[in-house]
């Protein structure tokens, strides 16, 4: 009897269950190998580049690392999140906030450039907000009382939306070459809370707030922690979006802004040749247009320095002439409207152009 009681007090073993069902004692199997990394082109490419995460959130970094992105540099934005909520809808607000974070960190990385550190190849930024059923935007709680009010409101309205906007930026060539490509997406997930009659009374909410788990999270709860088990009844959509970053969307945006992983060396070379042709054609077209617009430029060819000098001289001359005409008209008692000044300058320009044309 004592032996039986001792046996029932101890934790059950899988071997006991196997013996009861005639399975016998299982033999030791092979040692389990560690999980292999996800083998997809975009992850291979990003792991060989300088990837900057414009967020101090450890959860966003952990989600990217879980997917297989091992080399992540965290550079949070230092600018205040001061986008005017009244000027934007919830979707536009969160998208604009993420875009500003992305551009701020990208610019900051270039301004603090060191010779030993390459410019960023990809910058990832995100922003998460809660949108209540009545259209209010909730971010992180400001105090314990605000935290309790926030969770009670989410419980009483039963359903809310979690919006996470992701912005991904990559320079087109070298980061110091003018131009970059930025893409964004806002993901929506619906979260349903338990109601008060189903086991979520005020004292349970207050007890959860005291754990401090949701202090630094939009909406004041962590779906991946106690909050997900205690507060959330159902989630419709991406769970990692509620955590703070829809990772699949993030990788898709990285592919969109940076096509290099999908290009062969021959394709890269061909793209460079085509890009150079377009650049030269644009320069020629610009010179030809300037030669038609600026006086005394006919027959000067496409000398960059000379054309730039003539352009600057023309702008300065026209600005001074505009001031002279305005002064003369006003001294004569007239009103110098924009239309009048433009017509006078155009008439003078036509006269000068005719004089400069070769006979």
Automatic annotation (TrEMBL):
Keyword Hydrolase part of the UniProt annotation: yes
Cofactors demanded by this protein: a divalent metal cation
Keywords for this protein: Hydrolase
SUPFAM superfamilies assigned: HLH, helix-loop-helix DNA-binding domain, ITPase-like
Boundaries of every BHLH domain copy: 267-318
One Gene Ontology MF term: protein dimerization activity
Segments for region (Disordered): 1-34
Pfam assignment, any one: HLH
Gene3D superfamilies (alphabetical): 3.90.950.10, Helix-loop-helix DNA-binding domain
Ranges of biased composition (kind: Basic and acidic residues): 1-10
InterPro entries in UniProt: bHLH_dom, HLH_DNA-bd_sf, ITPase-like_fam, Maf-like
PANTHER family, per database record: BIFUNCTIONAL DTTP/UTP PYROPHOSPHATASE/METHYLTRANSFERASE PROTEIN-RELATED (PTHR43213), BIFUNCTIONAL DTTP_UTP PYROPHOSPHATASE_METHYLTRANSFERASE PROTEIN-RELATED (PTHR43213:SF5)
Protein name: BHLH domain-containing protein
């Amino acid at each position: 009897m004592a032996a039986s009681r001792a046996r029932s007090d101890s934790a059950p073993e899988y071997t006991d269950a196997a013996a009861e069902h005639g399975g016998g004692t299982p033999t030791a199997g092979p040692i389990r190998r560690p999980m292999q990394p996800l083998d997809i082109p975009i992850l291979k490419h990003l792991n060989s580049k300088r990837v900057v995460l414009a967020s101090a959130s450890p959860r966003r970094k952990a989600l990217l690392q879980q997917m297989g992105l091992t080399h992540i540099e965290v550079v949070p934005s230092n600018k205040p999140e001061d986008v005017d909520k009244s000027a934007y809808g919830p979707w536009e607000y969160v998208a604009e906030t993420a875009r500003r974070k992305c551009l701020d960190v990208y610019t900051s990385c270039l301004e603090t450039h060191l010779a030993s550190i390459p410019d960023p190849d990809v910058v990832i930024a995100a922003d998460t907000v809660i949108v209540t059923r009545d259209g209010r935007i909730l971010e992180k709680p400001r105090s314990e009382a605000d935290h309790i009010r926030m969770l009670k409101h989410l419980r009483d309205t039963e359903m809310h939306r979690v919006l996470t906007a992701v912005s991904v930026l990559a320079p087109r060539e070298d980061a110091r070459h003018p131009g970059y490509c930025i893409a964004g997406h806002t993901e929506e997930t619906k979260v349903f809370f338990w109601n008060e009659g189903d086991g979520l009374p005020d004292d349970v909410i207050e007890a959860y707030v005291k754990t401090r788990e949701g202090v630094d999270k939009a909406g004041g709860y962590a779906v991946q922690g106690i909050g997900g088990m205690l507060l959330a009844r159902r989630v419709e959509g991406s769970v990692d979006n509620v955590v703070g970053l829809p990772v699949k969307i993030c990788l898709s945006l990285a592919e969109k802004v940076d096509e290099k992983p999908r290009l062969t060396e021959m394709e890269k070379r061909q793209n460079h040749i085509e890009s150079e042709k377009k650049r030269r054609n644009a320069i020629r077209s610009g010179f030809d247009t300037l030669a038609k617009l600026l006086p005394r430029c006919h027959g000067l060819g496409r000398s960059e320095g000379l054309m730039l000098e003539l352009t600057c001289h023309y702008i300065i001359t026209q600005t001074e002439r505009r001031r002279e005409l305005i002064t003369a008209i006003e001294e004569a008692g007239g009103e110098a409207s924009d239309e009048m000044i433009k017509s006078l300058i155009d008439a003078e320009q036509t006269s000068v152009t005719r004089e400069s044309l070769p006979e």
